[in-house]
Predict the structure of D-inositol 3-phosphate glycosyltransferase.
Amino acid sequence: MTPPRRALVVASPYSEGAARALITGAASRGAMAAEILPRTRLVALAASLPLPSAAARTTFGRRMRVLRDGYAATRPHRVERVSHLAEMVLRAGLRLPCPGLALRASYLSKVLFDRAAAAVELPEVAVVLGFPGACLALFRAHPDARRVLHAVDAHPRAHNGELLRHFSRRRTWDERYPGRLVRRIEKELRLADIVLTPSALVSEQMARYGVDRAKIVQIPYGVSLTGFTPDGPTVDRDPERRRLVCAAHLSHRKGIPQLLDAVRGLPVDLVLAGGVFDRRLLRGAPPNVIITGPLSAEDLAREFRAADAFVLPTLEDACSLVVAEAAASGLPVITTDANGASALLDPRHSTVLPAGDVRALRDALGRVQPLDRATRRAIADSARTAATSITDWTTYAERVLDVVLAEEGRQGTDARAGSGPRRERN
């Protein structure tokens, strides 16, 4: 018996919102879909271990319950779990004391995942969608399929270039892409029939570094704004001081050193919410900085409701959706022209600064005023209307599928027709 043809196969080296939306959207169209994911048996086993009642009430215990529930869920489409080795390398890398080595372990795990994904039998596959650094072997294994590179990040040379423009080579070694990975991603870009980008910023980077504009398809990400509202539970704060919040992976790339310099001595409190890439970044942080660590979506929404503005002075960001979540919570947003998501915002309630300009950032932070409830609600309302380019994940998936599944079985520019997504041709 001949196996069924699968219109779309998504090979994702990690759980990602856009990939999940595409699988769901393809299934809703009646198209067969398959998903290739890395094995997570080690995590699943850890999540299933019984915990003493005291431990179950800790943050660790809550995270284990979330993992357990997630791995207990079933999917209606075919799911292939591949590569125990990729999982082992990734888990071992997370325990390394040097963040640069940990990041390189994650790159290696993607290569191992890619090799295993390429070995999965996918008869007559029509479309394969892969991720940067994790789809070279997959693309080579399916030369007759339409190959879509989901460019979730900046072009690797642009990423490295922006870090070196603002910091020394030694200071940014941990965060820069190694040369081997840069070359690997560039090979994937050459093999791809479609390069799917989330912002004009990334589209221009791709074209600047040699990607054919005719195969670049620009579709902004969807955003789930559920829970991000101006009304609801909040956190305690000093009512006499203005309060700023920055939610990000705290790193050089996100502009955290510039932010700490800008906020030093200002009569404001700055909340830094997110994982810390390297603890050395926070040495000497001024006393008006509050570090919370990673927060759940619910806790982040509480922080947003207590703040007077959101700030993300990123130096390179393909499309940071947290700015949309902050706007939906009623916060004015301060970000940079290096954030692809800045195009999603209502210009009446956002400030876009030159990336790396500490003086401009300090001036913008100093102008932040206390938010009243009416202003907060007005900003939140505008984030959910035609005043912005914010859409949900369902709309995003429909726009992508209109392109990648069009005229199934045909490749090249003929398959990339459509009026919805922006095509890069000039």
